[in-house]
Write a structure and sequence with these properties.
The complex is a heterotrimer.
Chain A: E1 6-10, H1 19-30, E2 34-37, H2 44-53, E3 58-63, H3 68-81, E4 88-93, H4 97-105, E5 110-112, H5 118-130
Parallel strand pairs in A: 1-2, 1-3, 3-4, 4-5
Helix pairs in contact in A: 2-3
Chain B: H1 6-17, H2 21-33, H3 36-45, E1 53-58, H4 65-78, E2 83-89, E3 98-100, E4 115-121, H5 127-142, E5 147-151, H6 158-163, E6 168-173, H7 179-186, E7 194-197, H8 205-217, H9 228-235, E8 251-254, H10 263-279, H11 282-309, H12 317-325, H13 331-344
Parallel strand pairs in B: 1-5, 1-6, 2-4, 2-5, 6-7, 7-8
Helix pairs in contact in B: 1-2, 1-3, 2-3, 2-5, 4-10, 5-11
Chain C: H1 7-28, H2 59-62, E1 86-91, H3 96-108, E2 113-117, H4 120-123, H5 147-153, E3 163-167, H6 172-185, E4 194-197, H7 201-208, H8 215-232, E5 236-237, E6 239-242, H9 244-248, H10 253-273, H11 278-281, E7 285-291, H12 295-316, H13 322-325, E8 329-333, H14 345-359, E9 364-366, H15 379-394, H16 409-431, H17 435-440, H18 443-460, H19 489-503, H20 506-521, H21 528-536, H22 541-552
Parallel strand pairs in C: 1-2, 1-9, 2-3, 3-4, 4-5, 6-7, 7-8, 8-9
Helix pairs in contact in C: 3-5, 6-21, 10-12, 10-16, 12-14, 12-16, 14-15, 20-21, 20-22
The chains are: A alpha/beta, B alpha/beta, C alpha/beta.
The complex binds guanosine-5'-triphosphate and magnesium ion.
Chain lengths: 135, 351, 561
């Protein structure tokens, strides 16, 4: 039996444009995942603590304001500090090409830029399952 | 899922008892998944169950249950309580996925280490969910959370199931939209220890509370006595005034989860109710019943697992049908013989 | 003279055409996929519209003449023949000085109005040194912490000559206070100041997310600014009721119209409660809509909105003055319609959007830059965007007659349809007790989320085509010279904030804040005055909002996904 994956969709930072995050949240539900949506204006601390309590397998972050270089790595960092580095972090939003590599270096597994389809994200999630990165 | 060795489970149980969030969360995942590891873990922690008080919160969708729980957490934290919350939302019957939205309203407690909120999806198992929530509540209990709140999905049978999961049940209703009448019909009126008329900031709250006081306690509010609600009762040939309120008749309270008014009173009523249940021996009785119900569910779930392993349930129905088709006996006879054969043969094996 | 049209004869002819020409043609080729033959908002389109779909007998009632009730054809009699729309590009990034330089560049290039974007900490009333501002300072707009930043932002711009639009909502009163205090120091007369504060909190709850306080106290702040502007800033628009963000959040055109008007109705009611007379303040209401790619539907949308608003103001609120009945609006080309893929295609899209806004009779227009979906627009992109408007104004010819698409059978039919559907929404919302209640119940958010989800699914299933995204794609091309944020910006802003805190008279600041809190506790007080006092003494935006947060509390998002 395959495990039913749990995914947190969160919006760190201050921007309130949650159209994309909500679409992903619903779309992942319709693809059979259990999705926890945290709403807007979440601190990195609250996202990490929610992810831990919910025992999620992945965290998807959506951010449109441009604060990704500060906030995404901070979340990865907090996960490491709290013995939860196995939780896969991916992100999406308006993220310039040249920021992607450094974010991956910092531990964000994948970055999806505008126009990415839900299927691409699902493929990514399933590849994580396959890689045993998700236990 | 990788299988877990005994020592791993013992270590996990230790960490649960130490209240480590990661461990508590993992443990709940295990009991929720319902496999052998979860069962072993429950057995390991079983001795640490029973200290916490478990409050069920139920009511129709959108009544404000989550918002109310958020407010209750704040109040309970003021009393330095450690609060665990299990918030149940439905799984999609089509995809099996779920969008777990209850904790969205409890966001302000995310960083409080003395609050642990966990969302659970119904995952299609009916009675099984009750077992999973009971056991998840046990995990939180073992981890030292002294008050555990379970928010139900608020549709169908879950209201009744909550009775066999919680020490006390809070029913949340809202004025307007005919919810009150619906509730009377849905049998929700038999299960509550406390009835909360939420959204008291909206029109109609006082009236609904009066109707509830009349229906549940036989009390008549002179201002509302002639309202249409009472009319419907009379028409049904039933007048609660003929049945004086029992000493332990439920309390009816007004609250507004949105602005927090009425919440301290709610907590106080809850404390009183639990104390009263305790004094009267009712609490102990409920817990015994809960234990019995859990045993029954464990038996059911074990049997179901056994049947599933043999393709009798949740297997390939075509396979079973083909077997049945080539058989001239009736369905009952067919199944009885098949089961008998399975239990006798070696492949029947252990449960 | 020609005979009036004989409708009956026409209908017979149309039926004949349906039977003998259309049906056989459809049998041969049933046409493209159904979803593609609907408007962007899912309104099904007929294969053909003709005079039978339009009743000339109701012309005056439905269309009328420009500058006259019900204003379907435009708010002024001559529209762009008299004066072109205001070309107003939203700008704001980094420090106040950088934005100031961009403003002066744009004014040099022929832009006629300023539009200020603020960064997110400013929009939610936090100072740049707040922990939640990490990574956000100067990102989506300019950071304003104190009067000192506002002084730098507006340096050497003659405030009694330009009109300034500020995209600010929850703390609008504070930013307005800063603006007028700077004007004062320039010796510009308050009565001459022209501009707009967005000040539309209701759409923040449903679509944009930069709210601070709960609805009740927020509406009070809006009431206070209405009253203040009506008395002291006669040329100022005290609110810009915004459908733009509602649409961008995924709403349909119908929802954009309906929810924006529902918001506006709530604001009018608030002003009336404050004891203002309808005609005293309604002229200060302005609107802000999105202009998207579905040209015909968008034009119809603008026309429907104008007609509905005129009717609401006249019939429901008993407005007398024509100005109170006119829906004057700013429009911005849709950001959500732009694509990160093949960004140059966005120039074509923006042209389409801008054309829709102009054909729809907009009063002012912001055209997005082609690289908006990628990052901050470069100077070159901003220029192309502005040039697009200038080409429409001076070369396309569409500005030379009033409401040129009127009488198009399909546009009139769509105008009627959008009005009818939006009207249903308004009734529904009224039955829930009004927009504030509908929002608190999560109804509006749910409707928008459903529409957004449906649309996105159609895209992903290939039922709708977006060029370069799900069709006609090319291999990834490298992005060109995008503007980057200056990494030292946050430090510079923090240093300036620290300087102000050090130099100001702390005692005076505390006193002013105290007075603000006292006033906030008295529901009858107009908070504009104590806020102006705080601003003058260089209290920070964060301090002012913190004082109000203490009294008003904070709003949390209702959980709608
Ligand atoms: N006016 C008012 N609205 C409230 C109150 N409490 C909750 N609400 C609103 O009611 C809506 C539903 O609240 P929830 O707390 O999600 O209700 P729920 O019962 O948990 O809903 P489900 O979990 O979906 O069944 C939200 O929009 C809340 O803001 C209240 O006291 N007054
Ligand atoms: Mg809930």
């Amino acid at each position: 039996m395959t495990k039913r994956l749990r995914i947190l969709i969160g919006k760190p930072g201050l921007d309130g444009h949650d159209r994309g995050a909500k679409f992903i949240a619903r779309g992942l539900r319709d693809a059979g995942y259990e999705v926890i949506y945290t709403g807007i204006r979440q601190t990195p601390e609250s996202i990490v603590s929610t992810a831990i309590q919910e025992d999620v397998d992945l965290i998807g972050l959506s951010l449109l304001s441009g604060a990704h270089n500060e906030l995404f790595p901070r979340i990865v960092q907090l996960l490491r500090e709290q013995d939860a580095a196995d939780i896969v972090v991916f992100g999406g939003g308006i993220i310039p090409e040249e920021d992607i590599e450094p974010l991956k270096q910092a531990g964000v597994r994948a970055i999806f830029t505008p126009g990415t389809t839900l299927n691409t994200i699902i493929e990514f999630i399933e590849s994580c399952r396959q890689d045993q990165k998700v236990s | 899922m990788p299988s877990r060795s005994e020592s791993e489970l013992t270590a996990l149980a230790q960490r649960v008892k130490a209240g480590q969030p990661r461990a508590v969360a993992r443990a709940i995942t295990l009991v929720e998944a319902g496999g052998g590891a979860g069962e072993d873990l429950v057995d390991l922690l079983h001795g640490a169950f029973g200290a916490a008080r478990i409050i069920g919160v139920t009511g129709p969708p959108g009544a404000g249950k989550s918002t109310l729980v958020d407010g209750l957490i704040t109040e309970l934290r003021r009393q330095e309580r450690r609060v665990g919350v299990l918030a149940v939302d439905p799984s999609s019957p089509f995809s099996g996925g779920a969008l777990l939205g209850d904790r969205l309203r409890m966001g302000r407690h995310a960083e409080d280490r003395a609050v642990f909120i966990r969302s659970m999806a119904t995952r299609g198992h009916r009675g099984g969910l009750t077992l999973a929530t009971t056991e998840a509540a046990g995990i939180l209990d073992a981890a030292g959370f002294d008050t555990i709140i379970i928010e139900t999905v608020g549709v169908g049978q879950s209201e009744v199931e909550i009775m066999s999961t919680a020490d006390a049940v809070m029913v949340v209703l809202v004025p307007g939209a005919g919810d009150d009448i619906q509730a009377l019909k849905a049998g929700i009126m038999e299960i509550g220890d406390i009835y909360v008329v939420n959204k008291a900031d909206l029109a109609g709250a006082a009236e609904l509370a009066a109707v509830l006081r009349f229906a549940l306690r036989g009390e008549v509010d002179p201002d509302i006595a002639d309202s249409e609600y009472l009319g419907t009762e009379h028409a049904a040939g039933y007048d609660p005034r003929d049945y004086p309120a029992a000493q332990n008749a439920p309390q009816i309270l007004l609250a507004s989860a949105l602005d927090g008014s009425g919440l301290p009173q709610l907590i106080e009523a809850l404390d009183q109710r639990l104390a009263q249940l305790d004094r009267s021996g009712e609490l102990a009785l409920r817990r015994r019943q809960r234990g019995a119900a859990a045993l029954e569910r464990i038996a059911q779930s074990a049997l179901r697992g056994w049947l599933a392993e043999r393709g009798i349930v949740a297997g390939d129905p075509q396979q079973l049908l083909r077997e049945f088709d080539s058989d001239s006996r009736g369905p009952h006879r067919f199944m009885r013989d098949k089961l008998q054969q399975l239990t006798r043969s070696r492949e029947g094996g252990d449960l | 003279m020609s005979e009036p049209i004989d409708l009956e004869q026409l209908e017979t002819a149309r039926r004949e055409w349906d039977k003998t020409v259309l049906t056989p043609a459809l049998e041969k080729n049933p046409g493209r996929d159904e979803a593609a033959l609907r408007t962007a908002s899912n309104i099904p389109l007929q294969p053909l519209y003709d005079p039978t779909s339009d009743n000339p007998a109701t012309y005056l009632e439905r269309q009328g003449f420009p500058g006259c009730y019900p204003f379907t054809r435009g708010v002024q009699p001559t529209m762009y023949r008299g004066r072109l729309w205001t070309m107003r590009q939203y700008a704001g990034f980094g420090t106040a000085e950088q934005t100031n330089a961009r403003f002066r560049y744009l004014l040099d290039q022929g832009q006629t109005g300023l539009s200020v974007a603020f960064d997110l900490p400013t929009q939610v009333g936090l100072d740049s040194d707040h922990s939640l501002a990490l990574g956000e300072v100067g990102k989506v707009g300019v950071a304003i912490d104190t009067l000192r930043d506002m002084e730098a932002l507006l340096a050497e711009i003659p405030l009694d000559e330009v009109s300034t639009s500020m995209t600010i909502n929850a703390p609008a009163a504070v930013l307005l206070a800063m603006y007028i205090v700077v004007a004062e120091s320039q010796d510009a007369d308050w009565s001459k100041l022209r501009g707009t504060i967005q000040n539309d909190i209701l759409k923040e709850y449903v679509a944009r997310g930069t709210y601070i306080f709960p609805p009740g106290p927020s509406m009070r702040l809006i009431q206070n600014t209405f009253e203040f502007c009506a008395r002291k800033l006669p040329k100022w628009n005290s609110i810009s009721v915004s459908g733009y963000h509602i649409r961008e959040a995924g709403a349909t055109a119908v929802q954009e119209v309906a929810f924006t008007l529902a918001d506006a109705i709530a604001y009018v009611e608030t002003a009336l409660q404050a004891g203002l007379n309808v005609d005293e303040f309604a002229g200060g209401l302005s609107f802000f809509f999105s202009a998207g790619s579905d040209l015909l539907e968008e034009v119809a949308k603008f026309r429907a909105a104008r007609r509905m608003w005129a009717r609401i103001m006249k019939q429901r609120f008993g407005a007398q003055s024509p100005r109170s009945m006119t829906l004057r609006f700013h429009s911005q080309t849709s950001g959500a319609a732009l694509t990160a893929q093949q960004p140059d295609n966005n120039v074509a899209r923006v042209t389409l959007h801008a054309l829709a806004a102009v054909l729809g009779g907009t009063q002012s227009l912001h055209t997005n830059s082609r690289d908006e979906a990628l990052a901050l627009p470069s100077q070159e992109s901003v220029q192309i965007a502005l040039r697009t408007q200038q080409i429409l104004a001076h070369e396309s010819g569409v500005a030379n007659t009033v409401d040129p698409l009127a009488g198009s059978y399909v546009v009139e039919a769509l105008t009627d349809e959008i009005e009818a559907q939006a009207h249903d929404y308004l009734e529904r919302i009224a039955s829930m007790g009004g927009m504030v209640q509908a929002i608190e119940a999560g109804y509006v958010q749910r409707e928008i989320a459903d529409a957004a989800y449906t649309y996105q699914r159609q895209l992903e299933d290939g039922k709708r085509i977006v060029v370069g995204v799900n069709r006609f794609t090319t291999a990834d091309e490298p992005h060109r010279d995008l503007m980057r944020h200056d990494p030292g910006l946050r430090e510079a802003q923090l240093a300036r904030l620290a300087d102000v805190r050090f130099e100001r008279n702390e005692q005076a600041v505390l006193q002013a804040l105290r007075a603000l809190r006292n006033a906030a506790e008295q529901p009858g007080e107009n908070l504009m005055y104590p806020i102006i006092d705080c601003v003058r003494r260089y209290a920070t935006l964060g301090e002012i909002c913190a004082e109000l947060r203490r009294v008003f509390g904070e709003h949390t998002q209702p959980g709608v996904v």
